[in-house]
């Protein structure tokens, strides 16, 4: 397998700044009549379609899209404002036969689906960069390396629920899709030269076919700092405060941490105040906004403090998978030896084919097979076990012999 850097295009000595869209300033589409006109224009194009979406992560409760960027090189660039338009499903049928080009597709596909847009085929330039073994796979670095162009930075983490959107933000948004199709072509050429284009096609098809993730069980357990808590009563208070915060954040359409930070939840649960005076004596809760909400927060704390013993959460959530790798040695030394051998072999394979370990095989999938190996120790049985758990054919071909060797050497 050729080294990725041998096949990659050299970085341009001086990247050319990409400062303005080729079509000039783009105004967001807010009128349904104009949306229908864009549908007709897009229907007449044949090029792949570059898409992106801007959310208000960190500002709003939901992960909805507040702006959708679309560019078909033979048609032009359009920005769609989903707030006045409601949804964009009218575009879905005219885009159905086109390849969608996105960067880090999994970040945007859910919010695009909410608007009625779903790809049938796609090309993910970020994932292509990973498979190609490139060291930096952000959109800016890839565009600079592969096309010799420099994208502006600075607005990706902005509050895109802002209205009206500043013109410089709109320019930034339009430029995010300006050369995405050209980047797709350059990445496809690189992957073809490396013998990895079929790998990429399988990965892209898996993204399209993937089912939406199931709702997380006990999402309150993701509260930052909770790993230090060992008392079940304290965990019950964290649970109730988390639920109270989530409900308030949903009603106010605010990111939960803007309503109450995780650190305040853990601190209040650990202190378990019994009165409002005790609560507002804690950091964060002494602030004016939190003082006004003190009865609300105290109600959640009281619910946790008085919950029946039978309703107290376990210190650790029950899982359907193997234990944390750090515990393997104590629970099953043979499995721990298999894991050590497999990790070393996977690292060697990763370096040889120039693909990150986590893209060669999902870490959770590898751990499951190593913790409970197939009854038949042959390489075919290992391959079948990997495929059954979702590994793509190219992954099975590369990793099944590696996993089989780890099982055989440490059985």
TrEMBL record:
Q: GO biological process annotations for this chain's record?
A: nucleobase-containing compound metabolic process
Q: Superkingdom, according to UniProt?
A: Bacteria
InterPro entries found in the cross-reference section = 3'-5'_exonuclease_dom (IPR002562), Exo_C (IPR041605), HRDC-like_sf (IPR010997), HRDC_dom (IPR002121), HRDC_dom_sf (IPR044876), RNase_D-like (IPR051086), RNaseH-like_sf (IPR012337), RNaseH_sf (IPR036397)
Name the Gene3D superfamilies on file. HRDC domain, Ribonuclease H-like superfamily/Ribonuclease H
**Where in this chain does the record put each HRDC domain?**
231-311
The GO terms this record gives for MF are: 3'-5' exonuclease activity; nucleic acid binding; nucleotide binding
Cross-referenced Pfam families, in alphabetical order? DNA_pol_A_exo1, DNA_pol_A_exoN, HRDC
Q: Which SUPFAM superfamilies match?
A: HRDC-like, Ribonuclease H-like
Q: What is this protein called?
A: HRDC domain-containing protein
User: Which PROSITE patterns does this UniProt record tie to the protein?
Assistant: HRDC
